[in-house]
Specification:
- The complex is a heterodimer of chains A (about 260) and B (about 250).
- Chain A has a single domain, classed as MetI-like fold (Orthogonal Bundle).
- With about 260 residues, chain A is mainly α.
- Chain B is mostly helical and about 250 residues long.
- The two termini of chain B are about 35 Å apart.
- Classes of the chains: A mainly alpha (about 260), B mainly alpha (about 250).
Chain lengths: ~260, ~250
């Protein structure tokens, strides 16, 4: 009896909060048929937004993957002062409001900011692509580090030491011993990083200046379409993003560290 | 390490330093004026109050869902388990739009919470859904059932067993999930911005307030409230770290 009650409570909660709203968006997008929805996601503005989103992710994800692996190795394998502070800084993007992130970059690179002089040399950061890339790197920073660190701890240093005694250079050791051991953790981190990069809204919203056809990503395009009463456009673009999210879930399940091997 | 530190400083530390510097430039009086502005106070109060409510609901419902995922077997369980992470993967603006489609003015169920505080609660419940479930689930999976069986054989009912045996074991995990949810809820913007209506003194949360100040060119005001949010996030992170050290120490004993 109590088993059924718990099951009912848990499943209905998920249905009300999660499943029902998400499925409704699919229905709303295709309410007037497939044609209008397709037209809505193939307008020049939507296409440009899509291109920009992918471009930003294509820069932010590799940057954070390299940093993530280097940072994880440094923080697990090396003893050095200030490690606690480094760890806290790595985690901060997870907890910090995206709007605050956007504002911080706006103040740093804006006209009156410390790096405002970049603008005088023709490097426009704020309300332009570089700023959007920088905030995306900020918000997606922790994912690879946090996935790789526990795996590095787990595998220990014996194999790496063995490789080193057999004459392998540090780079060879990394490529032949460390990298194969952490590759699934890296893959999992990359999936999370990509999903977050494609879906970032608040920080990009602050730094981009919302210039349609210029600094508008997919998420900004959803909001802009909705605010200008183009509901089919908003829902159709949402469906594209929701499909990316579902693909992410599938990838997460593929790469998820198995309980047995943990 | 040097490379990683340089990257971290450039990406994380410098922008945050610029933010704090901007907020501090107004002086203590200016900072205090910006933070004690009635609209800012109202936004901060609302944000904290709703976030606390979200935490309490998550503590209960997250534990229930984790329980049915680990201890129960039913048809479709795999799918249920897989969709738990959807709020992590779904862009927040899409989350807001989906909630507005179902629980907004033209929703098919006739429930309209748009532009009310209920809408904020709903949006925050959506985005924080996975935290408690995903922290409690592994602990529940590892939990030795023998203790529960012993309690049951000594005549304890299911409720008593849960209260005295299961709950104390889950408590640290619930707490750390709740802390993560709180940190997320305090700063949420995308999921809230469409559905809350952003009415000052009524449904305007802190992140939306900051956004409004940026749009109207009041950078010092935005920076001051941002620093408050930054401090809260940092404290929550430190608390989670302390909690984690505390539980691992207990594990070793």
């Amino acid at each position: 009896m109590s088993r059924w009650l718990l099951r009912l409570v848990g499943v209905s909660y998920l249905a009300v909060i999660l499943a029902a709203p998400v499925s409704l968006v699919f229905w709303r997008a295709f309410e007037h048929g497939f044609g209008p929805a397709w037209d809505a996601v193939t307008t020049p503005a939507a296409k440009h937004a899509f291109y920009l989103t992918v471009l930003i992710a294509a820069i932010a994800v590799p940057a954070n993957t390299i940093f993530g692996v280097v940072c994880a190795i440094a923080s697990v394998r090396r003893r050095c002062p200030g490690k606690g502070i480094v760890n806290a800084l790595v985690d901060l993007p997870l907890a910090l409001s995206p709007v605050v992130v956007g504002l911080a970059f706006l103040l740093l690179y804006g006209r009156a900011g410390w790096f405002g002089w970049l603008g005088d040399h023709g490097i426009q950061v704020v309300f332009a692509l570089p700023g959007m890339i920088l905030v995306t790197i900020f918000v997606t920073l922790p994912f690879v580090v946090r996935e790789v660190v526990p795996v590095l701890r787990e595998i220990g240093t014996e194999q790496e030491q063995a490789a080193a005694t057999l004459g392998a250079s540090p780079f060879q050791t990394f490529r032949r011993v460390t990298l194969p051991a952490i590759r699934w953790a890296v893959a999992y981190g990359v999936v999370l990083t990509t999903a977050r990069a494609l879906g970032e809204f608040g920080a990009v919203s602050v730094i981009s200046g919302h210039i349609v056809g210029k600094t508008e990503t997919m998420t900004l395009h959803v909001e802009e379409s909705f605010q200008s009463f183009d509901y089919t456009g908003a829902y159709a673009a949402s469906v594209v993003l929701a499909m990316v999210a579902i693909a992410t879930l599938v990838a997460m399940n593929l790469f998820k560290p198995k309980e047995a091997t943990r | 390490m040097g490379l990683a530190t340089a990257y971290l400083s450039l990406i994380v530390l410098l922008p945050l330093a610029a933010l704090v510097w901007k907020a501090g430039k107004a002086g203590r009086g200016g900072f205090w004026d910006a933070v004690s502005d009635p609209q800012a106070v109202s936004a901060l109060k609302l944000t904290i109050a709703v976030s606390v409510a979200v935490c309490l609901i998550n503590a209960v419902m997250g534990t229930v869902v984790a329980w049915i995922l680990v201890r129960d077997r039913f048809w479709g369980q795999g799918v249920v388990n897989a969709i738990i992470d959807l709020p992590f993967a779904l862009p927040t603006i899409v989350a807001g739009l989906t909630l507005l489609a179902l629980y907004g003015p033209n929703g098919p169920v006739g429930v309209n919470v748009a532009f009310t505080r209920w809408a904020i609660l709903l949006a925050l419940l959506f985005v924080t859904l996975p935290f408690v479930i995903r922290t409690v689930q592994p602990v529940l999976l590892e939990l030795d059932r023998e203790m529960e069986e012993a309690a049951a054989s000594l005549g304890a009912g299911p409720l008593k067993t849960f209260r005295h045996i299961v709950f104390p074991n889950l408590f640290p995990a619930i707490l750390s999930g709740v802390a993560l949810a709180f940190a997320r809820a305090i700063g949420e913007f995308g999921a809230v911005v469409l559905i809350s209506g952003n009415l000052p003194f009524k449904t305007e949360v802190a992140a939306v307030f900051i956004f409004g100040r940026i749009e109207s060119g009041d950078a010092p005001g935005a920076a001051a409230v941002s620093v408050v949010i930054l401090v809260i996030s940092f404290v929550v992170l430190l608390a989670i770290g302390a909690l984690r050290r505390w539980t691992t120490r207990h594990d070793r004993v």
